Amino acid sequence: MIDASTFLRRALLADAVFSGGAALGFTFGAGTFATLFNLPEALLRETGLFLIAYAALVGWLASRASVAKALVLLVVVGNAAWTVGSIALLLSGAVSPNIAGEVMVVAQAIATGVFAELQYVGLRKSGSVVTA
Questions:
Q1: Phi (first) and psi of residue 21, to 5 degrees
Q2: Residue 16 domain-assigned?
Q3: Which residues are paired to 129 by β-bridges?
């Protein structure tokens, strides 16, 4: 466990809020977003369901004064992988989004990459190991 810096906690909180909003939108509005973005409804709904759990975990981490460094690193690596995976999805040809869908996927990939960077910086700004 390490003392979580205010910067790290705010970066985690911002990620939780962003992910929570996406989770609700994709879970409950998958049909509407599927039509809007020309993306598979099941992909959007399953993404939303995953993001519910993810947002809860990241929100919980944001609320802690001390956190497991390995867990925060997992969030950072997961966000980086999400960014790469999102772009790979577009390039793979597995989906055929319209322009709005492409913009949405790229925008959320960029946002997720920014969260990874902010969380990494916050982790580096965090304090020493907590011994209790």
A1: -65, -45
A2: yes
A3: 2
Number of domains in the chain: 1
Domain ranges, residue 95? 2-125
Which contacts (CB < 8 Å, 24+ apart) does range 47-52 have? 47/22, 48/22, 48/23, 48/24, 49/23, 50/23, 51/19, 51/20, 51/22, 51/23, 51/26, 51/27, 52/20, 52/23, 52/24, 52/27
6's CB contacts (< 8 A; 6+ apart) are none
Residues 73 and 98: their CA atoms lie apart, in Å, by: 34
Compute the radius of gyration of the chain from its Cα atoms: 16
Q: Is residue 131 part of a domain?
A: no
CA distance 37 to 41: 10
What does the H/E/C string look like for 84-131?
HHHHHHHHHCCCCCCHHHHHHHHHHHHHHHHHHHHHHHHHHHCCCECC
**pLDDT, averaged in runs of 10, over the chain (132 residues):** 95 98 98 98 98 98 96 98 98 97 97 98 84 56
What is the amino acid identity at position 45?
A: R
In degrees and rounded to multiples of 5, residue 9 shows phi and psi of: -60, -40
